[in-house]
Write a structure and sequence with these properties.
The chain is of the alpha/beta class and 234 residues long. It has helices at residues 2-29, 71-80, 98-105, 119-132, 162-175, 216-224; strands spanning 52-54, 57-59, 88-92, 111-115, 138-141, 155-158, 181-185, 196-200, 203-209. It is globular, with a radius of gyration of 18 Å. The termini are far apart. The structure holds S-adenosylmethionine (SAM). Residues 62-64, 66-69, 91, 93-95, 98-99, 115-118, 121, 144-146, 159, 185 line the site of S-adenosylmethionine.
Length: 234
């Protein structure tokens, strides 16, 4: 379990460094004439933009590279969250769209949305959606997950990085209704203890529900987010 997680982190780090190595070299040699691009996932609040453009929008460098969740892990994530026909599911950082597509095909969600900052991933997901036969219930949005509105979610799925989960936690606590289920492949939420942890062929899946404000559970989740959630008094 730990070994798989270490390999994943190493892979992401290597891929990310490879993707950004041109930028780093350029920054070193041209520091005084060009702004340095944000290459650090932990620094994703930076407003530096990349040359990715789509539908007139300019989006910044992804916080984490694309690595798909294996199919059996997708099934475990959707099963542990008891995903079903009343649900509105969002996959934050949706890659090739496999999670919202399967949630609609096999688990019959009312609506599935994938959000990805990378327009290439959105193109792939839309191509996959065309052949999946669930286009009436699934959509893909080329947006930054930290800026997106997913407040109508009843289920949120994640496969990001530990620091990104923690960065996202205040938004999850502020924006989502109590009872919304959160499932994360591979990465936890620091001191916010999951209600369930599964081992799926060496991959870890974590499950939480958003607590009601004013409860001890909410205070614990808020503390894990660095106190970034809404006040526990409202
Ligand atoms: C590890 S992949 C997970 C893909 C998919 N959720 C899965 O489990 O198969 C992470 C995805 O997040 C996307 N991503 C990275 N930073 C993002 C951001 N700030 N907003 C939206 N998507 C982002 C990447 O482009 C990539 O497709």
């Amino acid at each position: 379990m730990k070994y798989g997680r270490t390999i994943y982190l190493l892979t992401l780090t290597l891929c990310f460094n490879a993707a950004c190595s041109g930028t780093s070299a350029q920054s070193t040699t041209q520091q005084t004439t060009q702004p340095q691009q944000n290459a650090s996932p932990a620094n994703s609040n930076a407003t530096t933009t990349t040359n990715q453009t789509t539908a007139g929008k300019q989006l910044r460098t992804p916080d984490v590279v694309y690595v798909p969740t294996p199919d059996e892990v997708v099934d475990a994530m959707l099963t542990v969250a008891k995903v079903g026909k009343g649900d509105v599911l969002y996959d934050l950082g949706s890659g090739d769209g496999r999670i919202p597509i399967k949630a609609a095909q096999k688990y019959n969600v009312a609506r599935g949305t994938g959000i990805d900052i990378n327009p290439e991933r959105i193109k792939e997901a839309e191509a996959n959606l065309k052949t999946a036969g669930v286009g009436d219930r699934v959509r893909f949005l080329n947006e930054d997950l930290f800026e997106a509105n997913f407040s109508d979610a009843t289920v949120v799925t994640l496969y990001l990085l530990p620091a990104l989960n923690l960065k996202l936690l205040p938004k999850l606590l502020n924006d989502l209704k109590p009872g919304t289920r959160i499932v994360s492949h591979a990465f936890d939420m620091g001191s916010w203890k999951p209600e369930q942890t599964l081992d799926v062929n060496g991959r870890t899946v974590y499950f939480w529900t958003i607590p009601a404000k004013g409860t001890p559970a909410y205070a614990a989740a808020s503390a894990a987010s660095g106190g970034g959630g809404a006040s526990s008094q409202n």
